[in-house]
Amino acid sequence: MKTTRLAAVVLAGAALGAGAAYLWRARRPALPETIASGNGRLEAQEVHVASKTGGRVLEVPVAEGDFVSEGQVLARLDTRELAAALRRAEAERSRAVEGVAEARARAAEADRTLSLAAGERTRALALLKRGSATVQEADRRRADYDVAVAAAAAARARISAAEHGVEAASAEAARIETLVADAVIRAPLAGRVQYRLAEPGEVLAPGARVVTLLDLQNVYMTVFLPTAQAGKVAPGADARIVLDALPGLVVPAKVTFVASEAQFTPREVETRTEREKLMFRVKVGVPRELLRRRLEKVRTGLPGVAYVALSPDAPWPAWLAVNVPP
Questions:
Q1: Which of 1, 56, 90, 149 has the fewest C-beta atoms under 10 angstroms from its C-beta?
Q2: Which residue, 237, 304, 306, 255, is CA-closest to 31?
Q3: Cα angle at 252 between 11 and 215, to 5 degrees?
Q4: DSSP 115-154
């Protein structure tokens, strides 16, 4: 019995809303030629929030219809495997740092050997000039010096290689840290959850959708206008939206898109009569500033009528004067 009464109340409310919209449309004056109109529904831009990494879903703390703020957690994935990989990467980085210290020590030893070899070569050449050393001895000192030079160069190269190893290990650790952070999926913007597409326990592939949000700061109505009117409409043109549920409320809007191709048209258009049947899609958007102040109250899917000015200086009838409260 309670269910029947509730259904009756809902049906009565819907009938009253439809009746109010009908009476408002019946009583309104005719539109001037400078204003076009079209029927549509209030829509919002869909944002598909997906998982960057694969993994098992631990929780999805939002439900369809929930309003979420920017940065709010939408889902969490299991990160135990990533945590193990991060520990390995950090260990590799520690070993690479130790390798740099070892390479620098060996380079310092090679530099000392080079300095000694340089002194021995200098003394051998001086003794050779005075006749106190043989040519063979001088040649041996030269060879020792050349070997020390090569060893010092190799030691410095090992330092560079070890430093690159540290950079590579650090980059790998940073990459895994990013993946761990991405395992907590957050809302990229404030909006309403339209679809919840993942459940705890499911294993997601990289790029799998988790939640679909409605961007309540990007709300619009799509209407179709005939060629004669669409040709006069440009993006940025002034517009108005009146919803059937609130027939006395006139919402300001702007034209945000005019299709470059017609729809509902024959494949071949030969006659003027056929050209007049062409319909072009036009999007009429509600200002973001107005929506931002009412995010939690925005409801999409409501039918209504969009009115579009066909020229920049087109006057609006008094019954289409904007009356949305600030």
A1: 1
A2: 306
A3: 70
A4: HHHHHHHHHHHHHHHHTSS-HHHHHHHHHHHHHHHHHHHH
Cα(148)–Cα(142) distance, integer angstroms:
10
Q: Report yes or no: 295 and 217 within 8 Å, Cβ to Cβ.
A: yes
Largest CA distance in the chain: 127
Write the CB contacts of 125 (distance below 8 Å, at least 6 apart in sequence): 138, 141
Evaluate if residue 26 carries a pLDDT over 60: no
Residues of the chain above pLDDT 90, percent: 47
What is the pLDDT, as a whole number, of residue 178? 92
Give residue 198's pLDDT: 95
The pair phi, psi for residue 265, each rounded to 5°, is -130, 150
Cβ-based neighbour number of residue 189 at 10 Å: 17
Domain spans in the chain, listed from the N-terminal domain onward: 29-76+192-320, 80-181
Residue with the two structure tokens 């959850």: 193
Q: Tell me which CATH code domain 29-76+192-320 carries.
A: 2.40.30.170
Give Cα separations from 120 to 111, 127, 137 (angstroms): 14, 11, 10
Q: What is the pLDDT of residues 206-232, one digit of tens each?
A: 999 999 999 999 999 999 998 889 989
Could you tell me which residues come within 8 angstroms of residue 94 by beta carbon, excluding any fewer than 6 positions away? none
Number of other residues whose CB lies within 10 A of the CB of residue 297? 9
| Length in residues, the chain | 326
pLDDT value at 11 more than 50: no
Q: What is the pLDDT of residues 265-281, one digit of tens each?
A: 555 545 555 555 678 99
